Amino acid sequence: VASIVSGAIYTASLDSDPRSSAGAAAQTGDGRPTPTVAGEPLDIGTILDQVRPSVVSIRINGGVEGEAAGSGVVIDDQGTVLTNAHVISGADGRAASINIAFSDGDIRPATLVGSFPGDDVALIRTTEPKQTVAATFGSAEALKVGEDVIAIGNALNLGAQPSVTKGIVSALNRSLSAEGVTLENLIQTDAAINPGNSGGPLVNSYGQVVGVNTAIIQNSQSVGFALSIDVVQHLIDDIKAGKADIDGNSAYLGIETIDVADATEEIKANYRVEAEAGAFITTVVEGKAAERAGLAAGDVIVEVDGKPVSENTDVGTAIRSHMPGDTIDIVIERQGERATVQATLDRRGG
């Protein structure tokens, strides 16, 4: 089993791309030759000094998951930070806040620029201007199996200063799949990736970012994964162009759900759940559309706008097809009885 580092579970499908890693480009993104495995030991201290100003710690306070932490990479001089979508996924609702701790000790509030949850990529930006130092991007296409890499991040949420672990590229073009979501073109590494490292950089021996730390294989040692920076750069461009799946202008209902099938028998008995399929509400965000509509934890959403809900992701799909201010019809099951409520959707950005 593999898992997104903050805790969401993935089942591993370790399928290599048919393309051989030996056929990768022989130069980095800036034209320099790729570092060789043989030769002098990696100077981790020098690389860390180069990269540290662009590595941040991200903390989510008061979100639907309580407090959460992750890492990020500065990508420009205006306080814009690249991270994993799952790192900031809990920052829903007016009570939640995203804070970025920079290497100089400065902590700034931030907002979502946009994200692609299916690709586990997000951009956030400080709410007030801050002069920042952008990381240097390399190319995952230039990596070779056996090449040295370093994972940097806020491992285990132990403090503002990043942790550093050294490893090698174990494999290229891996994929992880589960529950309809597939992460592709992943870099597999044996550099230790721990909870809190999500969103932090995987760098090569030039100090260039070649990946974004994202997942580990549970109950195994020295098996971690990073998103290819080559793929991520295209998504960054789309987010900046306003083409993100989710941004501040997206419609928002204000709930957290699980599949009915994933609810325990005890939970089903407590809430008298009879539906065999649907989205079981675990959390309703205070002051948002769902609460105003009268939805409550323990309700099961079985239909949205006349379309049946087979699994909890169907609710998100339905919401994303609407704009803030739209009114939707939601059929719920509560204590074994069905009812229809109307919800006027909010703007995710408040």
Task: Please tell me the overall pLDDT.
Answer: 81
Alpha-beta content class: mainly beta
Low-confidence runs (pLDDT<50, min 5 residues)? 1-39
| SS elements, strand count | 22
Number of discrete helical segments: 6
Which band does the percent of strand residues land in? 35-45%
Reading the helices and strands in chain order gives EEHEEEHEEEEEEEEEHEEHEHEEHEEE
Biggest beta-sheet profile = 6 strands, antiparallel, barrel
Largest beta sheet: strand ordering: 9-10-11-14-13-12
- The helix fraction, in percent, is 10-25%
CATH T-level topology of the largest domain: Thrombin, subunit H
Please give a structural write-up.
- This protein is mainly beta.
- 12% of the residues lie in helices and 38% in strands.
- It folds into 2 domains: 217 residues, Thrombin, subunit H; 97 residues, Roll (Pdz3 Domain), CATH 2.30.42.10.
- The chain has a 6-stranded antiparallel β-barrel. The chain has a 6-stranded antiparallel β-barrel with strand order 3-4-5-8-7-6.
- A hairpin with a 2-residue loop joins strand 20 and strand 21.
- It is elongated.
